[in-house]
Design brief:
single chain, alpha/beta, six-stranded mixed sheet, 21% strand
Length: 135
């Protein structure tokens, strides 16, 4: 009786779906964990020595010439407040939370004037964004 050799077993196919799932989950994690920040305007921020680090804000920028810029375009205080309302900005009992970033060469009187106009337009809490001075 003639014995034929058994055919060699095929190696099991590698299952790449598990690897694809892991890479996809890592991609989703880094998209959620990472923050895509809007570009900062071309201004030199006010420097402080004691401030907590946060990501760059979506703030109302005030240039050295007292021009108001939001998302790269010149804007009025009223339009800025309307955009905050539309975007669902944080609201407390005093009003909307506005963030401003002023140029370090902007005279203080013009910064105070901009803050007064924001308050008159309905801003309750106003945060002035500064840059931490490294020693």
């Amino acid at each position: 009786m003639l014995r034929l050799p058994r055919p060699a077993e095929k190696p099991p196919k590698e299952n790449t779906i598990a690897l694809i799932n892991i890479v996809f989950l890592m991609l989703i994690f880094f998209l959620i964990a990472g923050t895509l920040a809007p570009p900062m305007e071309d201004i030199d921020l006010i420097e402080t020595s004691d401030s907590r680090p946060v990501e760059p804000p979506r703030a109302l920028f005030i240039t050295a010439e007292a021009e108001l810029i939001y998302e790269g375009k010149t804007i009025t205080v009223e339009n800025y407040m309307a955009r905050l309302k539309d975007a669902g900005a944080a609201v407390d009992e005093t009003g909307l939370h506005a963030q401003i970033a002023a140029d370090s060469t902007l005279p203080a009187i013009q910064l105070i004037d901009a803050i007064d106009r924001l308050r008159a337009a309905g801003a309750g809490k106003i945060t002035v964004i500064t840059e931490r001075k490294m020693n």
